Amino acid sequence: MPLPVAIFRHYPTEGPGYFSDFLEQRQRPWQLIALDEGAEVPDAPDDYAGLVFMGGPMSVNDALPWIPPVLHLIRQAVARNIPVLGHCLGSQLMSKALGGRVWRSPLKEIGWGKVTVP
């Protein structure tokens, strides 16, 4: 059996949604890690085929106890070529883990936008 994809939930209303449907249609196992319910961040990414970080109303810059271990886990996954996907807050986590800066925008942003990588 293939390794599961770990889907990290940071807030009760920000679950895997259609992504879990996508995985199930392709017979890919997945595991929900509900950080909002006190689940522990895994020490290493090796038991997963990929890591997916969902959204939430908080910021990666907030002083939440699970943020530093999540950043460490992301760095480990990238170093080991384990796929990582971030949506909303998840993209903030990926950016900060990989050396990017994340700050509050003066404009409210909801939805999709174009990203250019230099």
Can you put this structure into words, describing what you see?
The protein is an alpha/beta fold and 118 residues long. The protein has a single domain, classed as Class I glutamine amidotransferase (GATase) domain (Rossmann fold, 3-Layer(aba) Sandwich). It has helices at residues 18-25, 67-79, 89-97, and strands at 5-9, 30-34, 50-53, 84-86. The protein has a four-stranded parallel β-sheet, sandwiched between helices. Helix 2 (67-79) crosses helix 3 (89-97). The longest helix has 13 residues, at 67-79. The protein is globular, with a radius of gyration of 14 Å.
How many DSSP E strands? 4
Per DSSP, the total helix count is 3
CATH superfamily name? Class I glutamine amidotransferase (GATase) domain
Q: Mean pLDDT, nearest integer?
A: 94
What's the number of structural domains? 1
User: Please, what is the oligomeric state?
Assistant: single chain
According to CATH, what is the class? Alpha Beta
Determine the N-to-C terminus distance: 39 Å
Instruction: Kindly provide the radius of gyration, computed on alpha-carbon positions and rounded to a whole number of angstroms.
Output: 14 Å
Helix content: 25-40%
Brief write-up:
Helix content is 25%, strand content 14%.
Keywords:
alpha/beta, Rossmann fold, globular, 4 strands, 4-stranded parallel sheet, single chain, 118 residues
